Amino acid sequence: MEKVRRIEGVAAPLPIVNIDTDMIIPKQFLKTIKRSGLGKALFHEMRYNEDGSENPDFVLNQEAYREASILIAGDNFGCGSSREHAPWALKDFGIKAIIAPSFADIFYNNCFQNGMLPVRLSEGEVEHLMKLAQQKPGAVFIIDLEAQEVQAPDDSVYHFDIDPFRKHCLMEGLDDIGLTLQKEEKIAAFERQYAERFPWL
Prior knowledge:
The protein is α/β, with parallel strands linked by helices. The protein has helices spanning 21-24, 44-47, 85-93, 105-113, 123-135, 164-172, 176-181, 184-197; strands spanning 6-14, 70-73, 97-100, 117-120, 140-144, 149-151, 157-159.
């Protein structure tokens, strides 16, 4: 998993509350177990018209936000079903961080497992950042994970809280497999000893 320390990029404003996982990635795209290729289907029903053409009113179809790496959204982001395809689709599109007042618990956990940073800020702080992203299309925002700060293009800075263990895993690029592999030598030693003690198994 890629190390996450500093995210610098365009922030796309999505002023909608209760964005559920079916809005993020509709059920018809859940047939794959691959993490790649899902970015095309991200926010499919809002992003495309019935004939498959792009909806020009949707934020990620607007030129200033096509390369957005940060998403600023409303309260309760990622609610609904627990599908892991939701963070996969966001990550595959290029989203590295999401800023919102609150997240659904399972989605919040899935973000960390997939190397994406969910940032909780107060409603007032998110509203301010949302307005900046709308008023200054293409403006660059910075999220400094080490300092736990969001730096806005108007020089305002907001601090966010994060569990120290989750922070460590993101900064070192460690998912569950990576954490396990850190103990590879101890695991191998245990397996050797176990084989010697119980050779018939």
